[in-house]
Amino acid sequence: MSQSFDVAVIGGGPGGYVAAIRAAQLGFNTVCIDAFKNPQGKPSLGGTCLNVGCIPSKALLQSSENYHAIQHDFAAHGITAENPKIDIAKMLERKDGIITKNAGGIAFLFKKNKVANVHGLGKLVGRQNEKWLIEVTDGGETQQIEATHVIVATGSNPRPLPGVEVDNVRVLDNAGALAMTEVPARLGVIGAGVIGLEMGSVWKRLGAEVTVLEAMPTFLAAVDEQIAKEAHKYLTKDTGLVIHNGVKIGAIENGADAVTVKYELNGQAQELVVDKLIVAIGRVPNTAGLNAEGVGLQIDERGFIVVDDHCHTNLPNVWAIGDVVRGPMLAHKASDEGVAVAERIAGQKPHLDFNTIPWVIYTHPEIAWVGKTEQQLKADGVDYKKGTSGFAANGRALGLGMTQGTVKVLACAKTDRILGVHIIGPMASELVAEAVAAMEFSASSEDIARIVHAHPSLSEVVHEACLAADKRALHG
């Protein structure tokens, strides 16, 4: 006999588990179905983000930055340490501990909010008596669940590189990149996106020679051009990454002792021999095993589930959120969509504005932005003004020893309404929150310029950039 619920969420990542919790808060009898297992074969909630993505990568980034700092930065503070060493096993143990703690935290939240948790692969079977039938398979066992509403939050998978098999021994995806047990002497990365640059930075700081190959001719094409150029300088000159754009990848040979990548750059045949190769060329929506075709769930030509502005699919009472639908593949976007869908099921009218979703790349220094880039405004023919300010003279940045970077504010030339804010610098991921809040409230650059910012603080650079937009910078 099948269990019956008001809402069934398929997928326990940042979109799915948040949707389930919010649905339960709104009074719905809710179940979350998730198939992820950790390397020990145990169920682990949190999806890609928590288990093999956002969270573990930030743990390794922090470890690598600490190691780099003790080697290169602490002497300026009068702190010296002879022959510092990195214990990779201990570093990975810390990372795994963070994953376990967070996954356990989600399980606790499910219990607290009375969300049922079923482990296994969820498959849509059909609809009977206004209820959707879902078959959940875990190993050789199968159970039936029925629900009035279904929220599909199955996330995404690494985009495969044709002709290349990821074995997570020498050729790695994001999961393999987070689990290397020793520092490779030579590391290759295909893809200069978020994953490629973050993982490349981690292992470069720990001692690897890192070469990044990117097919796109422009470095970080989605980032404001001025900020991207500054990022390229820091990542190549200071971090020490070798980055080649405009690369055409050819054959990749995974040998017994090394991986050989043959590629073309500026019309010249090249060859890169590395000990490990990370393939990070983006992600694709995950609908495997969902039985979309069998129930008539519409999938577009790129593999995304088709939804309207409210995340409703073409099927009655079936919703989809996060990486498996259109829009940016960001954990926080998925979470907010999950909340919005739960509230729509309850008859509320929530709003989610894609124009004010922040983006972050956790390199050193960090890169964060919200809204339009300068190149987008030019292409759209928008009359704008801009203000910039650097961290080099900021008292807090000087105290931290982190003076690299810039804040750039773009505002409408007529109304002064903020159209975009772009940051490269220390704690950019935190600083961008002020810009997001300002844009959500349709603030002008003058609004931020007239808000008192704490001194000394990094946020003063945002304040100064807004002053500069009105040509009245005080410290620049």
From TrEMBL:
One of the Pfam families matching this protein, by short name: Pyr_redox_dim
EC number: 1.8.1.4
Record flagged with keyword Amino-acid biosynthesis: no
Top-rank EC class of the record's enzyme: oxidoreductase
PANTHER family: DIHYDROLIPOYL DEHYDROGENASE (PTHR22912:SF224), DISULFIDE OXIDOREDUCTASE (PTHR22912)
More about this protein: The active site is a redox-active disulfide bond.
Similarity comment: family membership: Belongs to the class-I pyridine nucleotide-disulfide oxidoreductase family.
Name of the protein: Dihydrolipoyl dehydrogenase
Source species of the chain: Rivihabitans pingtungensis
Organism phylogeny: Bacteria, Pseudomonadati, Pseudomonadota, Betaproteobacteria, Neisseriales
